[in-house]
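Worked example 2:
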Amino acid sequence: MDFSVLRNLISRYCAGEENWLDSRTVYIGQKEPPPGAEAYIPQRYPDNRIVSSKYTFWNFIPKNLFEQFRRIANFYFLVIFLVQLIIDTPTSPVTSGLPLFFVITVTAIKQGYEDWLRHKADCSINECPVDVVQQGKAARTQSHKLRVGDVVVVKEDETFPCDLVLLSSSREDGTCYVTTASLDGESSHKTYYAVPDTKAFRTDREVESLHATIECEQPQPDLYKFVGRINVYKDTEEPVARPLGSENLLLRGATLKNTHHIYAVAIYTGMETKMALNYQSKSQKRSAVEKSMNAFLIVYLCILISKAVINTVLKYAWQWSPDRDEPWYNHRTENERQRPVVIRAFTDFLAFMVLFNYIIPVSMYVTVEMQKFLGSYFITWDEEMFDEELGEGAQVNTSDLNEELGQVEYVFTDKTGTLTENNMEFIECCVDGNVYVPHAICNGQILSAASSIDMIDSSPGGYRREHEDLFFRALCLCHTVQVKEEETVDGIKRGFHQGRPTSFYISSSPDEVALVEGMKRLGYTYLRLKDNYMEILNKDDEIERFELLHVLNFDSVRRRMSVIVKSSSGEYLLFCKGADSSIFPRVVSGKVEQVKARVEQNAVEGLRTLCVAFRRLSPDDYQEACLLLTQAKLALQDREQRLAQAYDAIERDFVLLGATAVEDRLQEKAADTIESLHKAGMKVWVLTGDKMETAAATCYASKLFRRSTQILELTKKRTEEQSLHDVMFELSRTVLRQRSMSGLSVDCLDYGLIIDGATLTAVLKSGPEGNYQEVFLEVSRNCSAVLCCRMAPLQKAQIVKLIKASKEHPITLAIGDGANDVSMILEAHVGIGIMGKEGRQAARNSDYAIPKFKHLKKMLLVHGHYYYIRIAELVQYFFYKNVCFIFPQFLFQFFCGFSQQPLYDTAYLTLYNISFTSLPILLYSLVEQHVSMDTLRRDPSLYKDITKNSLLRWPVFLYWTCLGVFDAVVFFFGAYFLFDNTTFTSNGQLMTTNTQMMFGNWTFGTLVFTVLVFTVTIKLALDTHHWTWINHFVIWGSLLFYVIFSLLWGGIIWPFLNYQRMYYVFMQMLSSGPAWLSIILLITISLLPDIIKKVLCRAMCPTPTERAQGTEKLTRGPADSTPLPSHYRLLKGHAADSSRIHLGVPETSALGMPQPFPQKLLLAQRPKGGGPDLCSAVGPCVLRLSGAGFAYYAPGPETSV
């Protein structure tokens, strides 16, 4: 239990802090305020120690054991082990204790090692040197000794040791530049500001003389929110209060850049820093395979209890006869005679439970954990999922959901930065209906020499107006873009162009950079922000200066941002840019219709649009706005709500200037990926905050919607014309009517649904007319694709949750790249983050992270397919081999008077799951490829074969269980009939008359165990499709290890054993020829039904996967990898990628071939008209270059060979 919260509560209470939940007061430099100021209340806060480790030296063993035994399987085996210790059981406690000890130890070592690494990382962080201002000079101390209120000196390229409020910097304007890549992945430089009253304190002694307090909110995990105010005390004046926001807070983990040094005060330390508060783990996700395992476990537990009950009842029924009550070899003691029959029966029941407990394999859990952990590296090692531009590959944040990648039915994807590149390119702008298109797009750098202006007025009657100049100035002023001078990055000077120093734009928003660069091409260049003045170079090469008074920052609710500036003539101007839906309602004049028409046209073309407006402010208006903003910014309570109210009051009565259009290009192979997902049977939903027209255009471009798709709209515009009730049921009738007709007609309409955020809110609410959620689900279920536009982040999560909770309970996947996608990523069964340009919040909170959207295709269709196939076989195989293992023990009780006599030796009971049969299935679950990667990529429909947990359904589970029971019956009764007729030899030993082999119960059990080990291992070998030298080594090596172990175990008298019952048993058994024949015969009989079933199924009703396997076998062979003769020409096919080539006919012959091709390749003459070079029935035969030769394969399931 974590007592840190309780400790903080007690310490704060004891320190006398009142109302601590709302705010805290920090005394800068640990100094009391001057006399006459507020009362000094000392407060206690945690030190700056970071603790990410889970255990300590003292609590590791008890805490780790407690966590491990919370797992039902481990606890069950602990109970069995304790029962073996307490009562007299037929098997040694070692048989259960050793496997349990092995699993617990391996898990503890793994978790202990991981925690030790965390301890090392914590120590390296906590012992980092930090400069603290003490007594007028900087003193070096360790990071963990920092306290709230200490003034810290941070130098360039150093990392902030805790959350700090900036006091001053080496820059005259009191600003500093920071990168937050370690927090959110954004590598751009962000500007942070010191308040005007402290930025003049720029030396150690000046900072030491500062008297000030900071009132701020208690620690919150939100990285982008901070509310506080600083009170600066001067000699004779009242304290000056200044607001503090996120632009003043430097977060732990961020790095100082392009600033020599800063002074800042520690505000949150240690585990109260925002970075530490974001350490909290996400909710645990469980895969469908894990749920199936638990269900199967319950079934086998019931079987185990049933076996124990049956044997207990039969034992007492058999002993009911007086002559069977006390066999001569098993006399009961006096205590046993006097014990009540109920106690004896219960003891026998527990003994049978112990005898049969191996039917539940404890080693399966550790094998599954190892398979998931080791298997996850195949994703990170995949070179095809490595992005050269980012220099990063795929990442696995949790390996518990690997197999879930093969079960996805719904894919929810963001648009911007996920389907598109989030690399904005300025296309055009429209001013009062006149369209301006730059001749060329800026390449990202501002040249020192003025570039030429090429303005193209594509609308008739275009002319210069006052609104044009205002429009261009608005876009040069209304932004948060930074201008960076020449900079050295990793030893390379960035910012030199043709030998001349240049500058470049940096912003957290790619849209803003594109707009500023676009304005540069149209004649207005943004130069810099210096001393709170923004400078721009106009079309006449004159520098204009505007004083930046206020910035009304962008937020996702308002969907706009504004600035208030003062021109050199003293005029106050409010410039605003934002989404059309947030600007048009606030416009009172301007050519609204013309601009709206252009915006809609650009949206249809898939361009991102923004509207620009302005308002002239009188001095009185400005003073009123200034008062509203100051009051809202100084508020400690509900600051965000007050700011929103102030923004709403200020941003009104606009004059519309125009609009811009920026293109966000579709990501490489995004359309191909979506098409493959559709073929794999997945439904793709796009959830975006963009307007409907822009999002719809992107959906058409990405092949989510096709031209033949009939679009169904469920939007606010339509619900205003009709009631929501009428619209919903009209859509329902449409899709249901089409579904009923689809059975009669071959041609079936393809539907696509578009819904916006406002309508979704109404759908999710149950009104008096009924609950529309089921109707919405029914409609969307019959649509091939769904587009949800104008979505808020919370609505994205609501959509995912709605689909998850539907009656089919489908497996969902959410993929996105921004902070607004985190909610749906956490809500979905599988969350995938794109390492995009909107930061790394999505990648940090996801289960998997990939560089580009195109990598999702291989992630699901290849890796997900393999993961599911492998772990499904692992689970079924484990239960199968344990049924084979324990059921003969159950049958043996019918022949030993239910005396709980074990069939197998203790060593065999212990090592069966640990050594003899564990490695082959573990390796199978790591490297098996039932079909090749190329086949899975080429034929996405194979994914449908494994969806809906098809390999772990109850019929498949029952087949494996029945197969295990059959094999166990063959093992037991085959060996039983082998030893049927026995006679006593002269020395009193039993010998079988039909095999002349010494006979005893341990020989019988060893023979059964030998057939068992060989059968289950060869069964796995028959199921293996992808053979490597490692497979051969492990499978045949495991059998060899069993034989060698048995020879050593029975061939040596071990001094540490108090019994030698296995001495010479194995060698005696192998010395008999009939025993060899029996082993081979029983193995063959056991495997025959499974082989016959597979052959018949493949011949009569093969699955698509089995057909693909057959095609691969036909196209695989030595002839297919032979280099082609030089007189054959290779024609590049239009359907192949750069690594494939079509095989054409020889140039020297029209019909005949100088050298015949292998029989498997069916070729036809290339038509003279330039048609396909292979016959249409076969499809294009494609060759892939492989070393010195060529490997043949056919792209697509329709290929016939």
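The radius of gyration is 38 Å. The chain has a mean pLDDT of 78.
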